[in-house]
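[09:14] KT: can someone run the structure on this one? pasting the chain below
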Amino acid sequence: MSVAISTYGGIVQAINVPDRDGEIADVALGFANLDGYLANNSSSPGPSGTTYFGAIVGRYANRIANGSFALDGHTYTLPRNNDPNTLHGGPNAWSTKVWRPTPGNGPEGPSLALTYNDPAGANGFPGTITAKVVYSLLSSNALRIDYSASTDAPTVLALTNHTYFNLAGEGSGSALGHELMIDAEGYTPINSNLIPSGQVTPVAGTPLDFRTPKPIGRDVDDADPQIALARGFDHNFVINRPGAGLTLAARAFDPASGRVLTVWTTEPGVQLYSSNFLRGDLAGKSGRAYDARSAFALETQHFPNSPNEPSFPSTVLRPGETLHSTTIYQFSVAHSGEDAFATLEGGLEPPG
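[09:31] RB: done, structure tokens below
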């Protein structure tokens, strides 16, 4: 397999992996050149909005309600780019910055370290952040992402990568036939602004139950109010975590190609997004339009709106502390869904 990464936004521009017959396809949605990403990040990029294809998302992944939060007795006001919320750090956030690259090569394979300094007050957030994201292509056919960051003043910080996957190949059509397992007993239900209520609700008996593998499309248009609010899946799942360190979050399988994606993370949550807001107005690398449900994202993360929810895992970062987070996207092949998910029953160890 091979991976292409841009210093603009730290974007994972391509992930080329073989299918069960050895045929290579790019399984990450995106554009063929920088102009496509620049246009998609403009103030009026079209009905599909800013997609964040493949980008590093910061300072705060997902949504902060009403564009504000309080920390140490001070209220901070942020620009609202997803009215009434601040989404993915606000406008012109980390997904639009040029990161400083340092290529490397280790025993497990090649790597690319990207660094960026975000000044205090950027989009209203306190503290100057020194951030580093290291992409490593492991010999076990896995893309490892290591995040680290420090601050000179108390702040909130939550990072993720926003790659959209279609394991049949980008631009190949609907991803609703992909089978998906998410190792989560609970999720954080949302309101009409897609903000969590602050509670964790069992997935059992709901269309958000992916504990047993099922096609993404089976319940994507269910009448359940949670599905209607998000126009599909756009929900944070609380990963079953046996302890600290990397743990299994999800596994996806494409029956047509046989490609399998396994997600490992140190994060407490993962956001399943079924690309509900793509509208066919964007042409990808293949020249084919990206329609709604033509991909899915599995964004490992702290929970949305955590700065305003004391019961959620904290995203506060203080001077002298360092944020550390790792996510691994591992690729393999299987002949059937039964084969793809059978190994989960015996327990797995993360690669690398």
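[09:33] KT: thanks! The chain is about 5% helix and 35% strand.
[09:34] RB: yep, looked fine to me
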